[in-house]
Amino acid sequence: MTVPVLSVRNLEVEFLTRRSTLRAINGVSFDIAKGEVLGVVGESGAGKSVTGLAVIGLIDPPGRIAGGEIYLSGTRIDHLPPEEIRRIRGKRIGMIFQDPLTSLNPLYRIGDQIVETIRTHMNLSETAARKRAVDLLAEVGIPAPDKRIDAYPHEFSGGMRQRVVIALAICAEPELIIADEPTTALDVSVQAQIISLIKRLGRDHGTAVMLVTHDMGVIAETSDRVAVMYSGRIAEIGPVQDVVQNPLHPYAKGLMGAIPTLAGEDKRLVQIPGSMPRLSAIPPGCPFNPRCAFVFDRCRVDRPEPLKHGSHAVACHLFDTTPHEAAKETAA
Amino acid sequence: MSDAVVPHRVEPNAPAARSGTGWLKRALDSDIFYSFRRSRMTMVAAAVTILFFLLAIFASQLAVQNPFDPAQLQLMNSRISPLWTAEGQSPFLLGTDEQGRDVFSAILYGLRISLVVGVLGVIFAGTLGITLGLIAGYVGGAIDGLIMRIADVQLTFPAILIALLVNGVAKSVFGNRLDAMSTLAVLVVAIGLSFWVQYARTVRGSVMVEKNKDYVAAAQLIGLPAPKIMLRHVLPNTMGPILVIATINLALAIITEATLSFLGAGMPDTMPSLGTLIRIGNNYLFAGEWWIVAFPGIALAGLILSINLLGDWLRDALNPKLR
Amino acid sequence: MLAFTLRRAIQAIGVMIAVGVIAFSMFRFAGDPVNQIVSLDTPAAEREAVRKSLGLDDPVPVQFARYFGNAAQFKFGVSYQFRQPVSNLLMERMPATLELAACATVFAMVFGILMGVYSALRRDTILTKFFQAVSLIGISLPTFLIGILLIYLFSVTLGWLPSFGRGDVVRIGWWTTGLLTLSGLKALIMPSITLGLFQMTLIMRLVRAEMLEVLRTDYIRFARARGLTTRAIHFGHALKNTLVPVITVAGLQFGSVIAFAIITETVFQWPGMGLLFVQAVQNVDIPIMAAYLLMVSLIFVTINLVVDILYTIVDPRLRSTIRRPA
């Protein structure tokens, strides 16, 4: 088996506030292989975006990576000095943010922004970089790229701007793209185009993609595997078909039940009662236990770890085959 | 009865216990007072400001002479250096100027004039600005357009220029030989006309927001007349920002008065304000008689700095977004 | 773009007409123009004749039109004090004021931007605290006190710099400049600092606030995610975006710098328009006051117009869609 492009192990991210330390990410582990698209879903505040920012080293104070390791193609990157992680950003990891309207500097021509990024990471002349910029714009589907390269961001529509953002993210041939809600701010009609563009780029270049979204539909369409996050932890992770059609974790079940389908017309959409706890008030044990229909005593005291279950890994005591007491003894 | 009721049981006693010193206690508990105690600089600034006001109020008790009374000035006492220097003479703590005027006494009386002009100027500007702002915001339409247009144009011109023009015109209309008290009145008007815009804009903005709220509709419904609604209901809602503007404006008004007097367009030499004293003293700087200009200058700078610090603190304390 | 410029120009003309009405009212009603011509002991009959010859018995609108027509040709009447045409006096003194205002603005811009950027990027250093203290003093100390303090330090005590006047000036056509002689340059230093200190404080506060705002934006975060160097992000992206509103304010400030020059010119006996104006106020020389008001307004309005147009050039978004931030 080859080394995964991205490997995250027991990642913990904390935010220091005046009153206490909030743990936004609590022991998250996952891998993304070359050419693979990993979808990360969850409600807002589940820690999806923070995970992406942690990988690229953009957690700003008062936040910090409190524990765990992040490997990029086998090299550990989470404890690199700022200057070295800067060299990785944009070159080996490309990032796409949610809102294309605000991601581009309004005062610079898009060509200048692309050329600037290319020349930061690749040893190219101004002309060569500009030629590459035109090629990139063509690749992401901007019509007449040799003319549009001199346009300002405000002269593009939202969808076109997101294509420019994608061109910026891939301009140094990164191994990994982190796309943080890349379609949320766009019109529905444009969403599908952007999704298929990201998918195609991943396939053509063998780039690994971490696709953060709260939209299960987008995940189902794009991803190879999916990780369901809840309260800073991964509740369930597995191949997208299996997780969508046969979710194991009660939260994932609820999430899948909340997707409208064309087939089951007369089925009522399932609703998960309650809401995700705030970071300052995460209950002990399984964070989902106050909302879970299958809750039992152990869930309130003992935190479930992700365990392999078929093709999935799921963090739920319902699927823990080892007896509770025994687990405790081995731990002690 | 369950536990949940217990907290309520204490309630009937609480207001009674508080009623005597109720407002004082509430004030001491408030966020504003808390932030006041937190900032040592603000406390010093407040103390200095109060000190200046007290000095001005009790000027005639504290001064060794009345600097406005030519009969009390003796030329043989002129240009005496401060008490701690070799040539110092009692009772002239900070020395004397060329007319034999005690600098300390002159500062006390000058402070009084600077503060009177400043406070009256702020009151005049505030009254004018609030009234115009209320009218503009409440009536709207063409009147609003006209008032705000004037405000826009005036805002492009610095206050000092407007004050100088008003001053010059007044002198021209009333003749060049105004007595000291009339000059003081002209200064108040000049400052008032220079600083009304900010009040008007703030009040107008608040009125626009408030007048669409339900309580104003309710007041209209029960038939309260428009001026009463504005004064009793809308105006109190704008008092916070107005207080901040007034504090910062007090510093600006004092600077403006001092500047006008320094430029020779303000208080006359016979009834000098701090600015006049600095103008007079400036002429003796090269002769080495630094104390004639230095002490009024320090007094003026200290006064303005403390008022500005208070204004800054008040702005931050009243702005919940910054807390 | 053209429509925008045109609308701004019409607004500017509106302001000028309003100021013209004020200047005319001052000229006509506050001062008696007859005094320009005759001396105090002239008999009443002769005064009446002069009044007729000046057209002062014409209807007020006619007089206003005449005043405005003359003002458009830079004819502002005759000064009571100097018995000379006001326009000559103003033109003679304008270079001194403009040069001083320009130097003060350059000083304020350079140091204001440097200090503002530094205190935004290094928020908790001692130098930042020092800059903030300077800014508080710059706002609290009246201009004339700063001038006096500088004079006491550098002229009276150290004897390094002249305390008054422009030094030697060089005449280039009708313009006189102190920039070409050593004494002229030395004479410019203290007045420029005195005049510029307040604007410097203002620009520093503005740059700091804007820069902190810009550093929080998405495009800066995206620029960091693209791996651009800190230098490129701070001094390329963030600074350029910060400077757009700063240009507007600094440009508009140039107008008030000219007006504030009144104070500085008095302290340093700088032979500019401001000093002329103060003397006019002291001596109730209404024609000079009215003319100064018109001239300064013209400069203000022109600057406002230029800044508006500059703004559209710097910010590409405004070139196609005309909307100004509040």
UniProtKB/TrEMBL annotation, chain A:
<dbReference type="Pfam" id="PF08352">
    <property type="entry name" value="oligo_HPY"/>
</dbReference>
<dbReference type="InterPro" id="IPR003593">
    <property type="entry name" value="AAA+_ATPase"/>
</dbReference>
<dbReference type="GO" id="GO:0016887">
    <property type="term" value="F:ATP hydrolysis activity"/>
</dbReference>
<dbReference type="GO" id="GO:0015833">
    <property type="term" value="P:peptide transport"/>
</dbReference>
<keyword id="KW-0547">Nucleotide-binding</keyword>
<comment type="similarity">
    <text>Belongs to the ABC transporter superfamily.</text>
</comment>
<dbReference type="InterPro" id="IPR013563">
    <property type="entry name" value="Oligopep_ABC_C"/>
</dbReference>
<dbReference type="InterPro" id="IPR003439">
    <property type="entry name" value="ABC_transporter-like_ATP-bd"/>
</dbReference>
<dbReference type="Pfam" id="PF00005">
    <property type="entry name" value="ABC_tran"/>
</dbReference>
<keyword id="KW-0067">ATP-binding</keyword>
<keyword id="KW-0813">Transport</keyword>
<keyword id="KW-1003">Cell membrane</keyword>
<keyword id="KW-0472">Membrane</keyword>
<protein>
    <submittedName>
        <fullName>ABC transporter ATP-binding protein</fullName>
    </submittedName>
</protein>
<dbReference type="InterPro" id="IPR027417">
    <property type="entry name" value="P-loop_NTPase"/>
</dbReference>
UniProtKB/TrEMBL annotation, chain B:
<keyword id="KW-0472">Membrane</keyword>
<dbReference type="Pfam" id="PF12911">
    <property type="entry name" value="OppC_N"/>
</dbReference>
<keyword id="KW-1133">Transmembrane helix</keyword>
<keyword id="KW-0812">Transmembrane</keyword>
<dbReference type="InterPro" id="IPR050366">
    <property type="entry name" value="BP-dependent_transpt_permease"/>
</dbReference>
<feature type="domain" description="ABC transmembrane type-1">
    <location>
        <begin position="111"/>
        <end position="311"/>
    </location>
</feature>
<comment type="similarity">
    <text>Belongs to the binding-protein-dependent transport system permease family.</text>
</comment>
<feature type="transmembrane region" description="Helical">
    <location>
        <begin position="155"/>
        <end position="174"/>
    </location>
</feature>
<feature type="transmembrane region" description="Helical">
    <location>
        <begin position="180"/>
        <end position="199"/>
    </location>
</feature>
<keyword id="KW-0813">Transport</keyword>
<feature type="transmembrane region" description="Helical">
    <location>
        <begin position="242"/>
        <end position="265"/>
    </location>
</feature>
<feature type="transmembrane region" description="Helical">
    <location>
        <begin position="113"/>
        <end position="143"/>
    </location>
</feature>
<dbReference type="GO" id="GO:0055085">
    <property type="term" value="P:transmembrane transport"/>
</dbReference>
<dbReference type="InterPro" id="IPR000515">
    <property type="entry name" value="MetI-like"/>
</dbReference>
<feature type="transmembrane region" description="Helical">
    <location>
        <begin position="290"/>
        <end position="314"/>
    </location>
</feature>
From TrEMBL, chain C:
<feature type="transmembrane region" description="Helical">
    <location>
        <begin position="98"/>
        <end position="121"/>
    </location>
</feature>
<keyword id="KW-1003">Cell membrane</keyword>
<feature type="transmembrane region" description="Helical">
    <location>
        <begin position="243"/>
        <end position="268"/>
    </location>
</feature>
<keyword id="KW-0813">Transport</keyword>
<feature type="transmembrane region" description="Helical">
    <location>
        <begin position="288"/>
        <end position="314"/>
    </location>
</feature>
<dbReference type="InterPro" id="IPR000515">
    <property type="entry name" value="MetI-like"/>
</dbReference>
<feature type="transmembrane region" description="Helical">
    <location>
        <begin position="174"/>
        <end position="198"/>
    </location>
</feature>
<dbReference type="InterPro" id="IPR035906">
    <property type="entry name" value="MetI-like_sf"/>
</dbReference>
<comment type="similarity">
    <text>Belongs to the binding-protein-dependent transport system permease family.</text>
</comment>
<dbReference type="GO" id="GO:0055085">
    <property type="term" value="P:transmembrane transport"/>
</dbReference>
<keyword id="KW-0812">Transmembrane</keyword>
<dbReference type="Pfam" id="PF00528">
    <property type="entry name" value="BPD_transp_1"/>
</dbReference>
<keyword id="KW-1133">Transmembrane helix</keyword>
<feature type="transmembrane region" description="Helical">
    <location>
        <begin position="133"/>
        <end position="154"/>
    </location>
</feature>
<dbReference type="Pfam" id="PF19300">
    <property type="entry name" value="BPD_transp_1_N"/>
</dbReference>
